[in-house]
């Protein structure tokens, strides 16, 4: 689960870069970059959740 | 944001930058003391020796190989969508060009040497009480050889992030005067990865009940470290403003004042929040608040007016104790020095605030692209690299070493041999 989250994060980055290359309009660019950040946030949340599930196992 | 020659009539500028950089190691000293003080007494000497060694390894790694990827001496670029993307430096190894390059460029290398050491110290604090010395060294070496130089080239060495202004019309490009992203977000992301890989200290999260409180062993170290850090941060912010933002010397006083305002605002806010929540102010959380305020100033001290710097610091000061609590109680993250909150969250908020309060059109979008790069490229990259390193040099000390303390286990002697150390309740 942690790996899945970490793999999602670069997709958010590419979304932000695609926004710069594809759109000239600042509004659209802003919206796509915000979406990229949202994807990264989701990826981070999944990775953190994966860490928490690991911790739920046997503890020292 | 490549260093350029001084404008006419400002020949003293390099000397000014050099003088600032001579004070910047105070930030290293301050952070080392904070890290040691927030750890346990039985690992204090190991923490401080580790800090000095990490600074040394970072210097050597960056000077040996890292600077050739970071510097503006030569660069590799590719073309995509009709634009050039400058992505890595290609200078000579071991600073072969340093004596022949302009003084401003040499000062840029000195700044980066100090910055990479600061970035290396951040994950060391997060891994306190269970991270081996050798692991601290290899993480610092990897950060110094490749990860930090790549980011430094993108932000400070004329790379594509610094050219967002000219390539895409986004303000003045990604602005990070003193390393809020390059040093602190990178260091904070490394701290998160270290915490993930090493796991919590033994007894921190018992099977039943709440997380065990493991307070730092020396509040005076921590608070004195905060004062030292202020001096270092003022030096970093002033030198960074002149070197990377090409600010006029007239902004130096405002930059220093903004640095103090951000730290003071954050400390005041943390003090009030902890007082309201716990009935008394908490020294270690207040220290974290102070440092988080300083981290926010790394991004915006030279760019925003004093009232905005104070506001940015106050917001971070309110968020710091809450985030530390969420990390520990809700997310099961054992971060003894609060590095993830202070450096990762503080750096991200500072970069965002710089975009909000900067006067240039499109600056906010440039800052958001920079933040997306830091989270989307460098956090996974650091995880991948550290995970591989953990296979070769295990990060976590063995259980017996953790039980007797890292001072005895790794150094053969304690930091306080003439004092009786309290028995730890969690090992009964």
Q: Give the largest interface pair and sizes.
A: A-B, 28 and 31 residues
The biggest beta sheet of chain A is recorded as:
none
Q: Tell me about the biggest sheet of chain B?
A: 2 strands, antiparallel
- Range of strand content of chain B: under 5%
In whole angstroms, how far apart are the ends of chain B? 56 Å
Quickly count the domains of chain A.
1
Task: Give the terminus-to-terminus CA distance of chain A.
Answer: 22 Å
Mean pLDDT of chain B: 93
Shape verdict of chain B: globular
CA-based shape of chain A? elongated
Number of helices, where a helix is a run of at least 4 consecutive DSSP H or I residues of chain A: 2
- Number of discrete domains of chain B: 1
Q: Which secondary-structure class do the elements of chain A indicate?
A: mainly alpha
Elements of chain B, N to C (H/E): HHHEEHHHHHHHHHHHH
Weakly predicted, low-confidence segments of chain A: none
- Helix content range of chain B: 55-70%
**Unreliable segments of 5+ consecutive residues of chain B:** none
Descriptive overview:
Chain A has 60 residues and is mostly helical. Chain A has 2 helices and no strands. Chain B has a single domain, classed as Orthogonal Bundle (Ammonium transporter fold), CATH 1.10.3430.10. Chain B is built from 15 helices and 2 strands. Chain B has a two-stranded antiparallel ribbon. Chain B is globular. At the A-B interface, helix 1 and helix 2 of A face helix 13 of B.
Concise description?
Helix content of chain A is 85%, strand content 0%. Chain A contains two helices and no strands.
């Amino acid at each position: 689960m942690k790996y899945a989250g970490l793999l999602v994060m670069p997709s958010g980055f590419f979304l932000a870069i695609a926004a710069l290359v594809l759109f000239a309009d600042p509004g659209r660019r802003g919206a796509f970059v915000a979406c990229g950040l949202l994807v990264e946030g989701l990826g981070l949340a999944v990775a953190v959740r994966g860490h928490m599930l690991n911790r739920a196992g046997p503890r020292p | 944001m490549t260093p350029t020659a001084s404008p006419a009539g400002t020949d003293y500028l390099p000397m000014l930058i050099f003088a600032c950089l001579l004070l910047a190691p105070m930030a290293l000293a301050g952070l080392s003391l904070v890290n040691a003080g927030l750890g346990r007494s039985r690992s204090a000497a190991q923490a401080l020796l580790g800090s000095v060694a990490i600074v040394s390894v970072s210097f050597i790694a960056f000077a040996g190989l890292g600077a050739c990827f970071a510097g503006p001496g030569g660069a590799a670029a590719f073309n995509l969508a009709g634009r050039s993307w400058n992505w890595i430096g290609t200078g000579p190894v071991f600073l072969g060009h340093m004596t022949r390059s302009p003084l401003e460029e040499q000062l840029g290398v000195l700044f980066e040497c100090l910055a990479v050491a600061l970035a290396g110290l951040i994950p060391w604090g997060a891994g306190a009480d269970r991270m081996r010395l050798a692991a601290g060294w290899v993480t610092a070496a990897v950060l110094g050889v490749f990860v930090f130089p790549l980011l430094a080239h993108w932000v400070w060495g004329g790379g594509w992030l610094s050219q967002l202004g000219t390539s895409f019309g986004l303000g003045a490009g990604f602005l990070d005067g003193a390393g809020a992203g390059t040093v602190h977000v990178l260091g904070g992301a490394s701290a998160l990865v270290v915490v993930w890989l090493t796991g919590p200290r033994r007894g921190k999260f018992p099977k039943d009940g709440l997380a065990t409180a493991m307070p730092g062993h020396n509040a005076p170290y921590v608070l004195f470290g905060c004062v030292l850090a202020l001096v270092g941060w003022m030096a970093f912010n002033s030198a960074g403003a002149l070197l990377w933002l090409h600010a006029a010397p007239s902004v130096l006083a405002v930059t220093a004042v903004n640095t103090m305002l951000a730290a003071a605002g954050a400390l005041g806010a943390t003090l009030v929040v902890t007082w309201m929540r716990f009935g008394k102010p908490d020294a270690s959380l207040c220290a974290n608040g102070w440092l988080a305020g300083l981290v926010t100033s790394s991004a915006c001290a030279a760019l925003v007016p004093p009232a905005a710097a104070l506001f940015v610091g106050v917001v971070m000061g309110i968020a710091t104790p809450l985030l530390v609590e969420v990390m520990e109680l809700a997310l099961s993250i054992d971060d003894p020095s609060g590095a993830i909150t202070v450096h990762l969250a503080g750096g991200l908020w500072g970069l965002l605030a710089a975009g909000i309060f900067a006067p240039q059109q499109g600056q906010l979008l440039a800052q958001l692209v920079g933040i997306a790069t830091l989270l989307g490229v460098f956090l996974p990259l650091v995880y991948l690299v550290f995970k591989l390193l953990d296979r070769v040099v295990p990060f976590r000390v063995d259980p017996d070493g953790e039980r007797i303390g890292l001072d005895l286990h790794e150094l053969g002697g304690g930091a306080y041999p003439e004092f009786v150390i309290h028995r730890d309740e969690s090992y009964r």
